[in-house]
Amino acid sequence: TRFPTAETALAALHGPLKRQLQREPYLMLVDFNAPCMGGLAFLDALRADPVLCRSIVFALTGSDNDEDKVAAYHRRVAGYLIKDKLGPGFRALKDLVSVYSQAVLFPVS
User: Fold this and answer.
1) In the 8-state DSSP scheme, what is residue 60?
2) Cα separation of 81 and 28, whole Å?
3) Positive or negative, the Cα torsion across 97, 23, 75, 42?
4) HSE-up of 47 (CA within 13 Å, CB side)?
5) How far apart are CA 56 and CA 52, in angstroms?
6) Which of 79, 13, 100 is nearest to 52 (CA)?
7) What does the pLDDT read at residue 25?
């Protein structure tokens, strides 16, 4: 599922998707350059929720700033991905998500 803003994502995650997320593993790609709410604020909201805190999150950003990387990993991102380094059409991102979801064992709820 794709959401245009962090606010709409949080509304869905706290609403209709929350019950499903309690039963199934899930992975999120969070655009840290999203309008209105930034990626770090979004992560803070996820980590504060007892169900959503289990989210496996990859940060997708344009920033190569060390402070941003530290802040993201402090909030337990699974990876910090810089858009310019992902190749044309974010091809590497598609491959990463595919391999990750097939190779990593997710926790049983």
Assistant:
1) E
2) 12
3) positive
4) 13
5) 9
6) 13
7) 63
pLDDT band at residue 73 using 50, 70 and 90 as cut-offs: very high
Residue listed under structure tokens 């920033």: 63
What letters, b where the CB count within 10 A reaches 16 and e where it falls short, cover 22-46? eeeebebebbbebeebbbbebbebb
Report the pLDDT value the prediction gives residue 109, as an integer from 0 to 100. Answer: 58
| Whole-number pLDDT of residue 75 | 95
At 81, give phi and psi (nearest 5°).
-110, 125
- Strand, helix or coil at 10? helix
Place of tokens 């590497």: 92
* CA–CA dist 94, 86 (Å, integer): 9
From the number of C-beta atoms within 10 Å of its C-beta (0-12, 13-18, 19+), residue 75 rates as: middle
Q: How far apart are CA 6 and CA 40, in angstroms?
A: 10
Record the tokens describing residue 108, joined without a space: 């049983």
